[in-house]
Amino acid sequence: MTQLADIGVIGMAVMGSNLAQNFARNGYKVAIYNRTYARTQDVMEHYGATAGFIPTETLGDFVAALEKPRCAIVMVKAGTPTDSTIDQLCELMEPGDIIVDCGNSLFTDTIRRERTVTAKGLNFVGCGVSGGEEGALKGPAIMPGGTAESYRRLGPMLEKIAAKAPEDGEPCCTHIGTDGAGHFVKMIHNGIEYADMQVISEAYDILRKSLGLSAPEIADIFEEWNQGDLDSYLIEITVEVLRHLDQETGRPLVDLVLDQAKQKGTGTWTVQTALDLGVPTTGIAEATFARGLSSSLKQREMAQLVCKALSLENATHEPVNDKAAFIEDVRQALYASKIVAYTQGLNLIQVGAKEYHWDIDLGETARIWRAGCIIRARFLEDVTRAYRRNPELALLLADDYFFAKIREAMPHWRRLVTFATMRGIPIPVFSSSLSYLDGIRDPELPANLIQIQRDFFGAHTYQRRDKTGVFHTLWSTPDRREVVES
Ligand SMILES: NC(=O)C1=CN([C@@H]2O[C@H](COP(=O)(O)OP(=O)(O)OC[C@H]3O[C@@H](n4cnc5c(N)ncnc54)[C@H](OP(=O)(O)O)[C@@H]3O)[C@@H](O)[C@H]2O)C=CC1
Ligand SMILES: O=C(CO)[C@H](O)[C@H](O)COP(=O)(O)O
């Protein structure tokens, strides 16, 4: 009798085919399926011989090829394609089987899908996977949601294919929480990814515009930074990218790439969720808006024309006297802004967990981000330690270790933000992160004025510093008497 598959993967594009190979390399028999069969054939042609796959042409064949209780991973385009694949699977699978969505699904979709699928007696796990093409193949960071029971069955397989942290060899996979928790955490991982990429880009921009450095020269600086606190996958690939020369022109490829950043949506979802939950996630928001600004072609064209006509294109040109000190200012601003982005992202996870009743362990979350995923960094070992010291830590930057780092960065950061502002170099995340810090530490924000303006035009009431209660001033009466609201 033909051996049945331990697990199946649907979707043979980059992520699904690599994930399937990863399972096979780890000793699992894997059934594979793709809507367009040619893609499955292509995978078989390239990897079939070594991988021990069971190729299937129809979803019915795919389901029939799985050992019971069946475990089917869906790795297709997020949104409607994922819905239709899950709907078709529900028709073919049996109670007790598990459908695992490993795509970048919106967590609220996952909550909805889990309800629908479990109502049919099947199990559903929304599972975040990060690491891109290479991670899927060699070991991604895996963020599964769903029930503890599903994790008992699925967890060992996922932990086996997950990345292992270099510090202790632990798998970068943990049961994040019920229903949409895994996709929620993956979404915020991506939001932090946006902020991390933006701060690296701001550093690159300042270095080229202020010091006139070439891409390979900036790569040398980043390579040095990668030996210290900033050691991370994103800095590492930036070094490679900045050194890469276009084969046709011999020029750095980065200089030839259009400055218009695209996005698939996870950053936007993070910001929308942050707004819904009222969590200030300014670094991620500015990073997302910066991508939007770069792609606002008509507006950019108009602004460039107007500024030229008004001779406003050049702000002051403060010279850089001490190049080494300046580069250190940039490094410190990058590091401090990164601490702020993580502070905000992790705060959003805390608030989301409360709202959606998930028991999310932030130390565990940081632990599984240490390897495999796009934001992997030495830094995450320090974040893990901070939450191990205090699992309830409400503000990462208030942890002793990170606060000391912020304190050290502060003069460099302020100097750099001032310099870039005077020079007219856009630094949306460097500057908004500094403002966030200045705001969150300020015992006297101007929100008192906003409250009283709201009371003036809308009778929205206010509270007072000097006594308890809720108050309203009768602004439209001649004596403007204050009344106590019940
Ligand atoms: N690329 C990355 O770095 C990462 C991607 N992800 C997520 O993983 C998932 C897969 O990503 P990726 O490998 O890049 O592939 P894509 O997101 O480009 O999706 C392509 C796959 O989806 C299938 N598909 C598209 N529409 C349908 C449909 N209507 N019904 C059934 N199948 C359909 C395609 O099948 P067909 O060949 O027939 O068109 C193909 O297998 C996505 O959800 C993505 O967001 C997660 C982490 C990282
Ligand atoms: O999930 C990922 C990595 O973790 C993907 O690479 C993600 O699609 C990248 O997002 P965007 O296309 O919006 O930049």
Automatic annotation (TrEMBL):
<feature type="active site" description="Proton donor">
    <location>
        <position position="193"/>
    </location>
</feature>
<feature type="binding site" description="in other chain">
    <location>
        <position position="104"/>
    </location>
    <ligand>
        <name>substrate</name>
    </ligand>
</feature>
<feature type="binding site" description="in other chain">
    <location>
        <position position="291"/>
    </location>
    <ligand>
        <name>substrate</name>
    </ligand>
</feature>
<dbReference type="InterPro" id="IPR013328">
    <property type="entry name" value="6PGD_dom2"/>
</dbReference>
<dbReference type="GO" id="GO:0006098">
    <property type="term" value="P:pentose-phosphate shunt"/>
</dbReference>
<keyword id="KW-0570">Pentose shunt</keyword>
<dbReference type="Pfam" id="PF03446">
    <property type="entry name" value="NAD_binding_2"/>
</dbReference>
<dbReference type="InterPro" id="IPR006113">
    <property type="entry name" value="6PGDH_Gnd/GntZ"/>
</dbReference>
<keyword id="KW-0521">NADP</keyword>
<feature type="binding site" description="in other chain">
    <location>
        <position position="194"/>
    </location>
    <ligand>
        <name>substrate</name>
    </ligand>
</feature>
<feature type="binding site">
    <location>
        <begin position="34"/>
        <end position="36"/>
    </location>
    <ligand>
        <name>NADP(+)</name>
    </ligand>
</feature>
<feature type="binding site" description="in other chain">
    <location>
        <position position="264"/>
    </location>
    <ligand>
        <name>substrate</name>
    </ligand>
</feature>
<comment type="pathway">
    <text>Carbohydrate degradation; pentose phosphate pathway; D-ribulose 5-phosphate from D-glucose 6-phosphate (oxidative stage): step 3/3.</text>
</comment>
<dbReference type="GO" id="GO:0004616">
    <property type="term" value="F:phosphogluconate dehydrogenase (decarboxylating) activity"/>
</dbReference>
<comment type="similarity">
    <text>Belongs to the 6-phosphogluconate dehydrogenase family.</text>
</comment>
<dbReference type="InterPro" id="IPR006114">
    <property type="entry name" value="6PGDH_C"/>
</dbReference>
<feature type="binding site" description="in other chain">
    <location>
        <begin position="130"/>
        <end position="132"/>
    </location>
    <ligand>
        <name>substrate</name>
    </ligand>
</feature>
<feature type="active site" description="Proton acceptor">
    <location>
        <position position="186"/>
    </location>
</feature>
<keyword id="KW-0560">Oxidoreductase</keyword>
<feature type="binding site">
    <location>
        <position position="460"/>
    </location>
    <ligand>
        <name>substrate</name>
    </ligand>
</feature>
<feature type="binding site">
    <location>
        <position position="104"/>
    </location>
    <ligand>
        <name>NADP(+)</name>
    </ligand>
</feature>
<feature type="binding site">
    <location>
        <begin position="76"/>
        <end position="78"/>
    </location>
    <ligand>
        <name>NADP(+)</name>
    </ligand>
</feature>
<dbReference type="GO" id="GO:0050661">
    <property type="term" value="F:NADP binding"/>
</dbReference>
<dbReference type="InterPro" id="IPR006183">
    <property type="entry name" value="Pgluconate_DH"/>
</dbReference>
<comment type="subunit">
    <text>Homodimer.</text>
</comment>
<feature type="binding site">
    <location>
        <position position="454"/>
    </location>
    <ligand>
        <name>substrate</name>
    </ligand>
</feature>
<dbReference type="InterPro" id="IPR036291">
    <property type="entry name" value="NAD(P)-bd_dom_sf"/>
</dbReference>
<feature type="binding site" description="in other chain">
    <location>
        <begin position="189"/>
        <end position="190"/>
    </location>
    <ligand>
        <name>substrate</name>
    </ligand>
</feature>
<dbReference type="Pfam" id="PF00393">
    <property type="entry name" value="6PGD"/>
</dbReference>
<comment type="function">
    <text>Catalyzes the oxidative decarboxylation of 6-phosphogluconate to ribulose 5-phosphate and CO(2), with concomitant reduction of NADP to NADPH.</text>
</comment>
<feature type="domain" description="6-phosphogluconate dehydrogenase C-terminal">
    <location>
        <begin position="182"/>
        <end position="476"/>
    </location>
</feature>
<protein>
    <recommendedName>
        <fullName>6-phosphogluconate dehydrogenase, decarboxylating</fullName>
        <ecNumber>1.1.1.44</ecNumber>
    </recommendedName>
</protein>
<feature type="binding site">
    <location>
        <begin position="11"/>
        <end position="16"/>
    </location>
    <ligand>
        <name>NADP(+)</name>
    </ligand>
</feature>
<dbReference type="GO" id="GO:0019521">
    <property type="term" value="P:D-gluconate metabolic process"/>
</dbReference>
<dbReference type="InterPro" id="IPR006115">
    <property type="entry name" value="6PGDH_NADP-bd"/>
</dbReference>
<keyword id="KW-0311">Gluconate utilization</keyword>
<dbReference type="InterPro" id="IPR008927">
    <property type="entry name" value="6-PGluconate_DH-like_C_sf"/>
</dbReference>
